[in-house]
What does this fold into?
Amino acid sequence: MILVWLIAIPILGGLAAWILGWRNPGSARWTALFFLSANFLSACFFTFRHAGQITITPGPWMAAIDVPWIPAFGIHFHLAVDGLSLALILLTHFLGLAAIVSSWTEITDRIGFFFFNLMWVLAGIMGVFLALDLFLFYFFWEMMLIPMFFMIILWGHENRIYAGVKFFLFTQISGLFMLAAILGLYFVHGRGTGNYTFNYLELIGTSIPAKTAMWLMLGFLIAFAVKLPAVPVHSWLPDAHTEAPTAGSIILAGLLLKTGAYGMLRFVVPLFPEAAFAFAPYAMGLAVLAILYGAWLSLSQTDLKRLVAYSSISHMGFVMLGIFAWNALALQGAVIQIICHGISTGALFFLVGALQERIHSRDIDQMGGLWRVAPKMGGVALLFALASLGLPGLGNFIGEFLILLGAYPVNGTMTVLASLGLISAAIYSLWMIQAAFHGILKEKKQIPDLSARESAALAAMILVIIWLGLYPQPVFKTAQPALEFLETIAAPGSHAPEKTGTVYHPVRENKNVVLPAAPQGAQYAVH
Amino acid sequence: MQSTDFIAIAPLVILAVTAVSVMLLIAIYRHHAATAALTFSGLTAAFAVLPGAARLAPISVTPLLVVDQYAIFFIGLILAATMITVLLSYGYLNQQNGHREEFYLLLLMAALGSTVLVTSRHFAAFFLGLEILSVSLYALIAYTRFRIRSIEAGIKYLVLAAVSSAFMLYGVALIYADLGVLDFVRIATRIQTSHGGGQSVILLAGLGLVIAAMGFKLAVVPFHMWVPDIYQGAPAPVTGFVASVSKVAMAALLVRLFSPIDLNQSDVLFGIFAALAFASMVIGNILALLQTNIKRLLAYSSIAHMGYLLVAFLAGGTFAVSAVIFYLVAYSISILGCFGVITVLSGKDRDAETLDDFRGLFFRHPWLTAVFTVMLLSLAGIPMTAGFVGKFYIVSAGVGGGLWVLVISLVLTSGIGLFYYLQVLIVIYSRQSGRGRCDELPYGIATPGSLAITVLVVFLFWLGIIPNSFIELIRGMTG
It folds into this structure.
C-alpha cells in the first residue's frame, strides 16, 4: 500500500497546493513542501525497515501491489519496489525537495499552479520507477510530460516556448514508438502463449524471432535514448534545461534523464537480451559519442546553464556505456553514477538558478570575481564542479570509475575513448569556476550570499555526495539483489558469455559477496 | 409490423414524435425555454426506452432497419451527444436575435436521421437517414443567418452534400445492377464469396462511389474540402454536432457495411481505405498546423482523427471493431468538449474562434481553461483522458492487425498533431497581449452550458482512468 501512497501523496499535494494557492499564493509552497516531506519520511521509514529484505519472490521485490485495472486488456495496476527503484525513489524525493526550495522565491506568478505541476511531475516519475506493468509504465511515462511542459513554457526564460515544444515533441513522439513496441511485445507474447498481458514479469523471457526482437528493442530504446539523452536525439536537452525555471532544470537533469537510464536497465536489456547484446557495440559507440560530444560542446558554452546541460549529456553517456557493458561492476557504477549525477547536476542547476536570481544573467562573461562577494556560493560551486569532474572522494568518481572498469573487458577501445571525457570534464568544470568566481569582479552591485534556506538544501546535497564518495556500500547493497535479478533474467547463457563472464562470475557464484568499493573491485575484474 | 417491432424502434418513434410536438408547440406558444425543455425531455424519453429495445435485440424491423446491441449503443451515443448539444445551444441561442425555437426542431430531425443511419441494414434506409440528417444540417449550419459566414457555410454544405448524395445514389444503382440486392448482409456475403474470382468493375465502381459519399460525411481526405469552412461558419454548437453526431453515425454505418467483409482479401478495397487513412492523417495534421482559427484547427484535426479511426477499421476483426467504437466515443466526448468551451465563450455577433480570443483564458476563466486543456490533451492522446485509452486501443488494433506502415504513420502524424494542440495550450496560458477583442465576447457562462461541459469532463476522466466496465460493454456488444 505504501507504493500507492508514494504516488498518491504528491498527486493530492499538487491538487491541494493549487486549490490553497488560489486564495493565498504563499501557502502553496508550504503545502507542497509539507506533502513531499511527508512522502519522503514515509519513503525513508520504508527504507530503514525493508532495505535489503526481499519479501516477495521470485525476484528482488521488497513490496508490491498488483490489482486488475483493465482486465479486458490484461492490464494491472502493478507496482513493485526493489533496491534499484528504492534508490531512485529516494533520489526523486531528495531532488524534489531541492526543487521546491530552489523555487521558493524564484516563482512569483501563478504559484499554486506551479507547485501543482511540480508535484505531478514527481508523481509521474515515481510511477515510472515503480510500475511493473508496461501499460502502467507508459501511462506514467506520458503523465510526467505535460506538467514538465507547462513548467517550461509558463515559468521558463526568454526562449521558453521553443524549448518547451521541442522537449515535448521529442519525448512524446519517441514515447509513441515505445507504445508501438510495447504493443508488439504484447501481441507476440499473447499469440505465443495465449496469455495477453502487460505484466513485466510474465513478458520477460518471451521467445521472439530475432528480427522482430531487434525492432521491438529499438522501439523501446529510442524512447529511452531520447530521455537519456543519447547523441543523435539529444538536441532538445540544452534548450529545455536552459529555458526551464531552476526547479524544472533540477528535475529534468536530476530525474527525467534518469528515467531513460532506468528504462534501459529495467526494460531494454531484460526484455530483449539477445537483441540488446547484438546492438550493444553500437549502443556503446553512441554512449562514447555522447561522452565526447557533450564534453566538447561544454567547452565552448558561455551560458552557464547550457554548459551544465551539455555536461549532463556527457555524464549520462557513461551511464549508457555502463548499462550496455552489462556486468556487475558496470551496472553498480551506472546506478551510483545515476544518483550522483542527479545530485551534483541538481546542485549546479540550483546554484546557477540562485545566481541568475541575483544577477539576472547566466552569461559567464558577465560574471567573474563572484567569490569575493559570495564566498559560500563559490565554495559550494567548486565542490560540485569537482564532483562532476570525478574527483576521488566524491560520489561521481565511484560511478565513472566502476563503469570504466566494468566496460573495459567488454570493449577496450570504447572505454579508452570514454575516459578521454574525464579530461575534458576537468577542463570545462574548472574553467567554469575560474570564469565565474575568480578574476575581476564585474558585478557592481552587492549581491547576497546563499540564504539559510538555500544553504540548508545545498548542505544536504553536499553531505550525500561526500557520503557516496567515501562509503557507497549501502547503495551497492541495496541495488545488488535488483541488479543480480536483472542480470539473471537477461543471461540465459546464449549471449557472449566469453566477454562478460570473467567479470561477473566471481560475484555471482557467491551470493553473499557484496560488491566492495572501487579499489578492491579492480581485483575482481582481473580475476 | 408487430408491437415488438414498435418497442424496438421506440427511440426513433419518440424522436419523431418529439419533433412534431416541438413544431406544434412553436406554432401555439413560442417560448425558448419551454421548447428547449420539451426537446430535452423528448431526448431523455428516447434514451429511457433504450433498455426496453435492448431486451428485444437483435431484431429486424422491416427489411430496412435492424435493432441490435450495436445499433442501440450508437442510438444512445447520438442521443447523449444531442442532449449535450441542446444544453450548450440554450445559452448560445439566448444571446441571438430572431427565432430560436426552430433550432431544436432541426436538431431533433438531425438526430433522427442519425439514428436511422445507425439502425439501417439496407441502402434505402441508409439513403433516408442520410437525407434527413443532411437536410436538417443545411438549415442548422446557416441558422445564424445574420452572419455572412454562416450562410456561406450552409450553401456550401448544401451543394456538396447534394452532390455526394447523388454519388451515393449512382453507386447504389451500380451495386444493384451487379448484385441485384440492396441488403447489407447479402451484399457483404456476395462480395465475400466473389473474392476468388475478383469483383466486377461495376461493383467496384459502385462501392467506390458509396465510399466517396461516406467519406464526405466522415470528412476524410480527399473528400474534406468543405470541412474547414463549414466548421468555421456554422454556429459553434452546430459545429460540435457535425463533428460528433454526424460522423459517429456515418462511421457506425461504415463498420456495419464493411466489417463482415474481410478487407485484407480485397486489394482494391483495402488499398482505397488505406489511402484514405494515410492521406487523412498526413494532410489533416499538416494543414491543422497552419491554422490560427481554432474552429478551423479543430476541423483539420478531426480529419486526422478519422484517419486514425480508419487504421483500426482496416485491421478488421472484433477487436478492431471495439477499438473503433471506443475511439468514436472518446473522440465525441473530446470534440464536443472543445466546441462546448467555444460555445459558452461565444458572443452574439461572432464565435470565440481566433487564437487571440483565447489568449490569456487562464486568467479569465480558470475552470474553462482546465476543461479546454483536458479536452485538447484528450484529442492529443495524453494519459488520464479518454483519448489516451482510445489511441491506445487504435494502435493496439493496428499492431494486432500487422498494419505496421499505417501504425508508424499514425505515430509520426500524431506527433505533428501534438504540435498544434500545444500551440493552443500555450496561447490560453499566456498573458493577454491586449490585441484580442475579447470584450465583444461575454464574460458570464450560461448554467446549462457549464453543466454540459462538466458532464463531459466527468466522462472524459471516467473513460481515461477506469475504462474497464465500458470496454467490457463494447466487447460484449461486438461479440
User: Anything to note?
Assistant: The interface with chain A takes residues 362, 377, 382-384, 388, 392, 395-396, 399-400, 407-408, 411-412, 414-415, 418-419, 422-423, 426, 429, 466-468, 471-472, 475 of chain B (CB under 8 Å).
